[in-house]
Design a protein that fits this description.
Blueprint: E1 2-8, H1 23-26, H2 30-38, E2 39-45, H3 55-62, H4 67-70, H5 75-81, E3 91-103, E4 106-111, H6 121-129, E5 138-143, E6 148-154, H7 184-204, H8 208-215, E7 223-230, H9 238-242, E8 246-249, H10 253-261, E9 265-266, H11 280-290, E10 296-301, H12 303-309, H13 313-334, E11 340-345, E12 362-367, H14 381-385, E13 391-393, H15 396-403
């Protein structure tokens, strides 16, 4: 049997999104509605009732892990998602290219995202990876999409218990990292971070990429901000738990990283960007091809969350309709429904009026030959609340794998 899990980031909404309906309820989704009629619906608290999920902790929970026990921070997933060789003892960070001005008091933050820099990041990353720190800590930096990147620090006795250097608002000075615990390793890590940031500014401020940006009237990417310090989590691979092999198709590094940490194999889809311009048909076709070699595939889609954060109701509704037509439609035509099961859900709610993650549960549907159908005739938040599966927390993937008779027995 085969299985497909699809997580549409930030899928859920509130009635305030669009004239009393959520963006999902307002969207024209004939394929999801058909799967709802052929399957069963429920409501899913990504972590637990009343808990506002981060994307990283939500995905850990949806894949079957307890984030309270396994979560060490986001940076490691960014590094893993960009195929960096993370080893025990390494400390990993999320990174932003940013724009600062030098003042007598320090570096003044002008733009946290350096104008969402669109080119030249690999050249900047190569310059940053050549940085040598005075305390012997080794540096590896990789650029991701736009302003995003990841930093890996390697050395003896490092610690993830350090503060971040991103003030999260412009017009303020970039703060120095500091140890959050009374520990020599944390102090050494904070010192390495501060030296890296100072040297990043010295290297990037006159880099040819930034000289060209300034000449073009664009903000230079002249410093790196760090947050999400973390080390390698201890996750039992899904293959060891269920005896099946999985793959991940995702455009953004974080979601690839969480899946890779759980033992899935990364497969890149042509045109997958991690944004609203992503090629959803390509993602579906890549997943169908992967199912020839793997037992299940996890597909992540980011655009729903982007539009939620932008407070763009029509944009989110339109992207949901693209998911239905391009991703779900292609999968429905390519799966063997005599032996395939599919789950579709979100990792959290991103209401339009709030523009950030909220704690409401998200709708989830399961379809396939072993799913007991309920009375649902459409897919949406309120329809899912009336669904036959009820309401539960996390574990979307384990429930999907159970439909394929892969779940291990607890007890005798």
């Amino acid at each position: 049997m085969k299985a497909v899990l699809i997580i549409a980031d930030g899928l859920g909404g509130r009635p305030s999104d669009l004239d009393g309906k959520t963006c999902l309820e307002a969207a024209h989704t004939p394929n999801l509605d058909e799967l709802a009629r052929r399957g069963a619906l429920g409501l899913l608290d990504p972590i637990g009732p009343g808990i506002r999920p981060g994307s990283d902790t939500a995905h850990l929970s949806l894949l079957g892990y307890d984030p309270y026990r396994s979560y060490t921070g986001r940076g490691v997933f960014e590094c893993l998602g960009m195929e960096m060789d993370v080893k025990p003892g390494d400390v990993c960070f999320r990174a932003n290219f940013a724009t600062v001005e030098e003042t007598p008091e320090g570096l003044l933050l002008i733009d946290r995202r350096a104008g969402r820099i669109e080119s030249g990041q690999s050249d900047l990353a190569a310059a940053l990876s050549a940085i040598e720190l005075s305390n012997g800590v080794k540096v590896e930096f990789k650029a991701s999409t736009q302003h995003r990147g990841a930093l890996l620090l390697r050395g003896e006795g490092l610690s993830r218990h350090v503060s971040e250097t991103d003030p999260h608002k412009t017009g303020t000075l970039v703060p120095e990292a500091r140890a959050l615990v009374d520990d020599p390793g944390a102090a050494r890590t904070a010192a390495a971070m501060n030296e890296f940031i100072r040297k990043s500014y010295e290297i990037l401020k006159d880099h040819p990429v930034n000289r060209a940006r300034i000449e073009a009237g664009k903000p230079p990417a002249n410093v790196v901000l760090l947050r999400g310090a973390s080390d390698l989590p201890h996750l039992k691979p899904i293959a060891e738990q269920y005896g099946v092999r999985g793959a991940v198709v995702a455009g953004a590094a974080l979601y690839r990283g969480v899946a890779v940490a759980g033992g899935m194999t990364r497969i890149d889809a042509p045109g997958a960007t991690g944004g609203v311009d992503t090629d959803l048909v390509s993602k579906a076709r890549t997943a169908l091809k992967a199912l020839e070699s793997f037992d299940y595939v996890f597909i992540h889609v980011k655009g729903t969350d982007n539009k939620g954060h932008d407070r763009d109701a029509e944009g989110k509704k339109s992207f949901i309709e693209r998911i239905d037509a391009e991703l779900i439609g292609t999968l429905m035509g390519g799966l063997d429904w005599k032996e395939a099961h599919l789950a579709f859900t979100g990792d959290h709610t991103t209401p339009i009026d709030y523009g950030d993650h909220s704690a409401e549960p998200v709708p989830i549907l399961y379809a396939g030959p072993n799913v007991r159908t309920d009375a649902a005739t459409e897919f949406g938040e309120r329809a899912a609340g009336r669904g036959g599966l009820g309401r539960w927390s996390g574990r979307a993937l384990p429930i999907l794998l159970n439909y394929n008779n892969w779940a291990p027995k607890f007890g005798s």
